[in-house]
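Backbone-to-sequence.
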């Protein structure tokens, strides 16, 4: 086995991570994720989830009588590395499908490779541009940034507010979500009265937030980004004494955001999947069994708290396996067709109904509006 594909959860500097399946593995599934680097809070739980699920499926006899092998690389969130690994997955590893792309940038870099090779690709990144316009071989599991804007604006209007100060990261996801929020604001009855941005390495956003604070009539703040930037924004908002409602994107839907933001996170709202409040859902909720089951399995297997990002990998893997079973084959074209025919799939993100014109299959009802209270997630009634 090549040194570049040896699995090491502790080797933070590793550029490539591979997980070899059992000796009798017959179906190769590929993955390239940001297991290390600045986006590791996305990729690490995704990678751990895929390993856990492959082990479970193989222990139960595999898919259509064949064992699975997961070939996994760590791109660190770097689009160039992601594209290199995508090419390797196709040309050297000869995988039949790929789950990956922790970030929008990495995903967009890989799409041309899988489209040309005609390999089904299920992305775990957030931006709507991944599946709009529809690309034949590309699907995704997370709610889109456009949906996040819609859900946030819906909640803002419910609070009797309408004037929003927008602050966004300049990376792929932040740039995309900013544009989506600008596009849907008018139809949602919201006016963007301030529009500020910051760079990926910025450590202080007080100048931008001061401008927002002084914007005429501003009633709420929305931060479109993921990673450390939103935690800095949250702390800066409190340091400036800004008492306005603060909203974050679904890109920070993990315990690490609360830990990074500390006490400043109190009262922050964001749209996310039911996974973060699995134990708080009523027994009558049709999604509860799925999210509670995954949460328990993941936390037992890893000893780490569950995050929505691992849930994206869970949904992608389960849909891929279901597609292989439905097709009765692991042949890429047959699997692609079966994924596109996914209907009524209950995942951690919600109920998925895909079609030839919708390679996500979620609507706004799949989002839950959450608020951080006493260092934990609570449902907004």
């Amino acid at each position: 086995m090549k040194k570049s594909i040896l699995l090491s959860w502790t080797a933070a500097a590793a550029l490539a991570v591979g997980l070899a399946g059992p000796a009798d593995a017959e179906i190769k599934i590929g993955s390239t994720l940001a297991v290390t680097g600045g986006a590791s809070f996305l990729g690490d739980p995704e990678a751990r989830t895929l390993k856990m699920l492959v082990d479970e499926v193989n222990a139960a006899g595999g898919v259509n009588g064949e064992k699975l092998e997961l070939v996994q690389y760590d791109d660190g969130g770097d689009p160039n590395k992601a594209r290199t690994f995508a090419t390797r997955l196709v040309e050297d590893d000869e995988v039949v499908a790929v789950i990956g792309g922790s970030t929008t940038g990495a995903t967009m870099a890989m799409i041309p490779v899988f489209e040309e090779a005609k390999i089904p690709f299920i992305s775990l990144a957030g931006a709507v541009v991944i599946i709009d316009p529809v690309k034949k071989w590309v699907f995704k599991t997370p709610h889109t940034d456009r949906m996040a804007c819609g859900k946030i604006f819906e909640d803002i209007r419910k609070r009797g507010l309408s004037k929003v100060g927008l602050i966004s990261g300049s990376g792929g996801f932040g740039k995309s979500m900013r544009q989506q929020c600008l596009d849907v604001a008018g139809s949602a009855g919201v006016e963007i009265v301030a529009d500020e941005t910051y760079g990926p390495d910025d450590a202080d956003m007080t100048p931008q937030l001061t401008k927002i604070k002084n914007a005429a009539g501003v009633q709420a703040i929305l931060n479109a980004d993921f990673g450390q930037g939103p935690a800095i924004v949250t702390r800066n908002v409190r340091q400036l004494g800004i008492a306005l409602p603060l909203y974050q994107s679904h890109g920070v839907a993990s315990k690490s955001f609360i830990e990074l933001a500390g006490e400043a996170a109190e009262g922050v709202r964001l749209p996310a999947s039911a996974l973060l409040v699995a134990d708080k859902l009523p027994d009558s909720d049709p999604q509860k069994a799925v999210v509670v089951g995954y949460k328990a399995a993941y936390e037992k297997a890893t000893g780490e708290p569950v995050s929505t990002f691992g849930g994206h990998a869970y949904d992608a893997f389960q849909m891929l396996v279901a597609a292989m079973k439905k097709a009765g084959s692991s042949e890429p074209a047959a699997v692609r067709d079966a994924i596109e025919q996914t209907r009524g799939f209950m995942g951690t993100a919600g109920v998925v109904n895909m079609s030839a014109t919708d390679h996500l299959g979620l609507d706004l009802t799949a989002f839950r509006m959450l608020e951080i209270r006493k260092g934990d997630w609570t449902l907004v009634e």
